[in-house]
What does this fold into?
Amino acid sequence: MLTALIFIPVVGAIVVALLPRRRTELVLPVGVALSLIPLAVAGYLFATFESGVAGYQFVEEAVWYQPWGISWALGVDGVSLPLVVLTTLLVPIALAASTSVSHRLKEFVAYTLALEAGLIGVFLALDLFLFFVFFEVILVPMYFIIGVWGGERRVYAAIKFFLYTAFGSALLLAGVIAMAVLHASQTGVPSFALTDLMALDLSAGTERWLFAAFAVAFAIKVPLFPFHTWLPDAHVEAPTAGSVLLAGVLLKLGTYGLLRFNLGLFPQAAVDLVPVLAVLAVIGIIYGAVVAIVQPDLKKLVAYSSVSHLGFIVLGTFALTSGGLAGGVVQNINHGITTGALFLLVGMIYDRRHTKQISDFGGLAQVMPIYSGIFLFTAFASIGLPGLNGFVGEFLVLVGSFPTLPVYTIIAAVGVVLAAIYLLWAYERAFTGPLDKPENQKLTDLSGREIALLAPLVVLMLFLGLYPRVLLDRVEPSTEAILDRIEAVTTYSVPAPGRIGDVFASEGGEG
Amino acid sequence: MIFPEVNWIAIFPEMILALGAAAVLLVDVQWAPRPRTLARISFGLFVAAGAAASFQHFWLAGLAVGDLSQALPFSEMVVVDPFAVFARLVLVLVALLGLGAAWRFVEGLGRRAAEALALFLLATAGFSLMAASPHLVMIFLGLEIGSISLYILAGFGRQHPRSEEAALKYFLLGSFASAIFIYGVALLFAGTGSLNLLDQRQFLAGTILLRPAVLLIGLALVVVGMAFKVTAAPFHGWAPDVYEGAPAGAVGFMAAAAKVGGFAALTRILVTSFADYADVWAVVVGGIAVTSMLVGSVLALAQDDLRRLLAYSGVAHAGFILTGLVAGRAGTPGVWFYLAIYSVQLVGAFAVVAAVSGPASAGSPFSRYQGLARRQPFLSLSLTVLLLGMAGIPLTSGFIAKFGVFQEAWRAGFAWLVIVAVIASVVAFFLYLRVIVAMYMAESDGEEVAAPPLPIKAVLAVAIAITVVFGILPAPLLSFAADALPF
It folds into this structure.
């Protein structure tokens, strides 16, 4: 089932690539239709996933090359399941939103589907070798998506994106090899299986080096300050679909990796190095937000807001409490939904006006009431208005982080206020006030198709805001298991009230 | 006449190739057939040599364990071991693909086609002998047969002055390297009293040398001589000019065959005779590896000609292969896997060069590749896949190859080398990305590129298949290479 989930988009990409050259009008509908199949499969997984169970489910394993100890091992748990669903949800939306892609559409759709396969693979891989394969192979389609269909400085942005993240994965590769060699020296056989490597006996120094190699790779992906400089370029230059998938899913590889591998494989080093990560996370939260405030370009603003939002996720993850971990996972999803929607919205206005400068707009609410309404709603979700999804994650992270990292949490909370400033101020400048630019007076409101694209995301914002249990029931057992293991193998113990069952965590869960 | 009792099986492939070379020349003199016919004959000869090597593989499997006498015929001048068989198969594959890439070039030669084809056959025979001999003099002879054939091939594009320059430069520096190698061989003989690697191993295992200076100097010279042949830095200076000037159709074969032969001999010498001195030479080899990876990757950045870029990236690849070699015998399978994959990709990439710039041309500036994706989608897709393979992107066999050598080097205690190597491979990404940018993201310069002829299409299809299939399912080739160890 999981293998099929990876291969369906691959087959889809091949099918699209083989469509007859003259029938360009077929490409997009076929691509969207094909990308709905993984969504259906992922939906089925989500429905049949046994909530309340911590371990991996739907596990599949096949030996790849035995002397190296590599295997095709897939499985899904509460941490990865929501991300898989998110990926399969965003791809059809991103594809359907790509009507403005005019040249080489077939390749574009094929690359997007290949990207989807890689992304799903990353989240499902239970073998470090396999994980690395997917982690790195994703760069290729994304590189082409930015480099061929991007904006003015697309080549620069694409190469910067590729090299920056490739540098991170080079360190990761060294770390992965080191782990397998250590496993071979301790047990006699090399292995890349996550569960085998978790049982390694590492000296404190080795563990820290390996932690650092993995952490830098993932920090570049997140991106954590000071590794974030590729992100604005990539986002601004990428086509809308690229931005949606980049912000919605690609960045989550970083936070997912930190949670799955840095906490899972190197618990002691993680406990020891919490201050480093927490400082970087908080700097990212504040820095991203402050820089977002002053952006004249709407797309760049959303890009920097990602830096800020992902800072919250990292903070929650390294708070090492129930609320922090679960909040981080939930926030992964929320950020994917809201930022995905924001990039779609920016893309829609760009298609009409061919500018993203906030100062070129003004009073848009008068001519585009539906657009403005959805924009405001999404902005509220992103800011974390209670009742919408952003609130649940942010609240869980902050409440969860307070017991272990009180000072950082207080500073981070300022980021929530800053988020309100940059988004609402941008809204005020672009949508309210007089409609004084003649170009803006002729703008048309969203078409039925565009509303249909945004509708699932808007519904999810509301649904997850009101009923986060549907996520948390699946996430919490897995994050609890990660915490249990950290407590078991290190001297760290989560201070009360940091675990579920302590006073307030259950309220936090209700949002 | 009485033939001595020898095992002819041991030199089947070389016999086919060398006699075939003579036959091609004679057929040409007698019947003057069209170049295409001669090329077909040569193709058949290579296939026959491949079949002979495959036969050796099965013959070897049936040999009684420990029965070395059968596998070491001709007074132990030739050896049939899995190492040699693997080398022959790789060389034959390289030659077949190289011949395909050179098809148009050969057709355009007219009456000189037979000479070029004979040189293809002889070069393959020479490097094949070089890989299949445990005797230093025989290795040297193989090296010279192969190298001299290549010097001449490099000068075959007579209408281009740069082709002559390439041939002369290759000849002078190559002879210099051979001289260094043979001097090293002499010192090794002085140090061990034998020219046979197996005897040397026995001698060194049973003797503690109080003053190993002669031996070590000899070893160093041998390593340097081979480093020239495989374009490891700082002995790579000739490669860019030769790759740029030699006829486009022949470069891929020249580059790949020399590397396979050179690495085969270097590996055999180091892991057979000097296994006990690994801690001495591994550091030197590691140093050359680091220099090659860094020099190759960085200098390649400054190139604006695809051939020069491939030459410098070849320097970096030599470094990656040497990274596997530091692990000695344990690293040999990784070295073989890498060599097999890389040489196929190299021939494939030069096949694209031949298709884009014309089979007999010199130089291949990036401007020719601007917007190639629109004009020749198959060529640019092929080059992209091959370059991604060289870059070591996962799901290509290049990644498996890199992973293999890195893993062995790390296990052998060369973690620092692996860290340099992974960083160098990121720098190398940039090289290949530049070419891909030119093809996919730049506007066309308007110059037409002819559609590739059928042989080149076939070469590219095979090269892509090897790059992708062994990237996804590497197990068969990995386990084949895992046995490719010298006696």
User: Anything to note?
Assistant: Residues 8-482 of chain B form one domain. The interface with chain A takes residues 388, 393-395, 399, 403-404, 406-407, 410-411, 415, 418-419, 422-423, 425-426, 429-430, 433, 437, 440-441, 474-475, 478-479, 482 of chain B (CB under 8 Å). The mean pLDDT of chain B is 90. The CA atoms of residues 54 and 89 of chain B lie 7 Å apart.
